[in-house]
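tool_call: predict_structure(chain=1)
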Amino acid sequence: MKRLLAAAAVLATFTHAAFAGELTLFSDSNFRGQRMTIDRDAASLGDVNFNDRASSVVIRSGTWLLCEHANFGGRCAEFGPGEYREIPGFNDAISSARQIGRDRGGRGHGRDHDRDDDRGGWRGDDRGDRGERGGWRGERGGPDVVMFAGPRFEGPQVELSQDVRALNDVGFNDRATSLIIREGRWEFCEHADFRGECVVLGPGRYDMLDRMNNRISSMRRVR
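tool_result:
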């Protein structure tokens, strides 16, 4: 019996490890300043003295939902494994975090992200229905990146799936105000030929681009 219980405990440990995720929040951009590592849901970062302090994040495993209010309320953003030197739209505005998609191979549950749809945010909706501003995950055959001239995915748009040394060539220089990334990690730069200030963004829906608003002149895939 003891051997059976021990085996069950080991199996439970491995099962937990298979699904457990981990992320580290940093108080400054570029992974500087104080840090806080999380390996379980955190309904209130205020409980660990890290409310509205995160400016960059490293996600080592799992897919995480980061939200502007405690208890996963307000506008939320979904982040997969990777290094995020900055958090556009969420700088110093994260109050809770939880891992999602553990029962669907890392894919998000779109309804969980839609608490504040009028203000944008990411939605992991698999329906691919652009009219409802969802579907950046699981969509096949569509463009990797969609740029919009207006905030919250409004206005004229351009669809791209390859490096562009000068967005002026596609009539979208210094016009992007919001964007959707369906696939890959992309570097967006303020000047042509990937010069000037740049920011790297991964899959998600960016309803505002903050300081890169109307400043993107070139883009290229980096991963």
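agent: The chain has two domains: 2-130, 140-221. Proceeding to next step.
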